[in-house]
Give the backbone structure.
Amino acid sequence: MSLSHVISDSLVQVHLLPAQDIPNPGAEAPPGADAIQRVVGYVRWVAGICILGLFFGGIVAATAGRLWDHHGSGRLGARMIVGSLALALLFGLGYTLVSQFAASTA
């Protein structure tokens, strides 16, 4: 038996295996996924509270800086307010963007 004959026979046998016989299992959550989701929920909750704290802290700093004529504190408070609004926008869009990216790959 020649080498070319062995290769052609092996290729014929490879093509005899249909792809329909290979099972395609569905997606399954790994063990411990509930705990991970709980931790992510806690982190999201803390992030939301921090954004609110930054906003109200910025209001306090801006008000105090303007009342006592401390321009550095007033500017810092204004930056804190703008920063908290930008973070709130990113926080709100984050879930939507990640969901869209994940849905497009599936």
Remarks:
- Helices lie at 3-15, 33-67, 71-105.
- The mean pLDDT is 85.
- The two ends are 48 Å apart (CA to CA).
